[in-house]
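Q: Structure for this?
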Amino acid sequence: MNEHRYAARVRGVEMSGIRKLFEAGGPDAINLGIGQPDFDTPGHIKEAAIAAIRVGKTGYTPNAGIPELREALSEKFARENDLTYRPEQILVTAGGSEALHLVMEALVDPGDRVLFADPGFVSYAALATIAGGKPEGVGLDATLHIDVERAKEQMDGARVFVLNTPGNPTGAVESEESIRALVEYANDQGVTVVSDEVYEHFVYEKKHISAARFGEDVITVNAASKTYAMTGWRIGYLAAPDEYIPEFLKIHQYAQACATSISQYAALAAYTGDQGAVLTMRDEYRARRDLLYDGLAGLGFDFPRPEGAFYMFVPMGRTLIAKAIDGGIVIVPGEAFGLRAPDYARFSYATSRENLSRAVGRLGKLME
Ligand SMILES: Cc1ncc(COP(=O)(O)O)c(C=O)c1O
């Protein structure tokens, strides 16, 4: 039989360490490993999808997305992000993941350097590699924020800098000052900034600031996934300077044709409808953050209170991480997020308060 052959750029990519954890732990395991809301999609959004099915809105849509949704997203950018993007500058994708994929495929040539925080979201390095580029982590400071000066040193000659605030896996929210400094410097050096803002609504004290306010060469990536508890609906989008859109569309139309029609109508209801559910979820995440943080601080862990997303990145040492996972507390070891934080583990608090209290109690017992 012929030996199967695979392209080197794909062979070089490892499966996500997080996916494996979906099956981890026994029946008694407490799962703090998963990065998706534990809330159900709000009712009015589901109803919009059902109505779309009933009236037969089930065919292909325009490649870039239905005009009503692109219009609604344009208004959302003005209302929430202080950004002016015309509907023609917006492309609706199959989740934020596809938006990130399109950007890497369209911008990265073989050998191009792609910068992102290390520890950082698992997809950046993988998508950069699949596009033929060279992923390169940027270090964080002791408070788990991007070290702006170190990042600047790495920018010379890089092609893309991915900024993710609020950040996965750290929960860190970058300051306006840092975002401005990073974007201005990157753009001055000819580095395109990709701003991944999928956690923008889960910011607990500070205000979310969009990177595109500070530079021309910025691509904003976002999604309905986390904001509206819609991970399975697969709706994301990107917004960019006009000249980028046809290049992204080339890939999107051949690889994907369009995002799911039914989900696009659901997303239209999400972005134009009542935003109360988003605030309720945000308040609940904040209460859970405090519950988990205070519990872990009570056990002696010393790290800054995270300001956003629904993650906590905890310095606990590899031995205890392994002991916790063996003991049925599913958390994600820092190795899954890059090279620089093997002594940390990510705790997701997108789970009930009861689970969080049980996890802290169990961890305390394991440490006795
Ligand atoms: C930082 C970040 N960006 C993008 C995504 C992808 O989101 P989506 O489900 O919309 O593809 C995730 C999902 O975990 C994420 O954490």
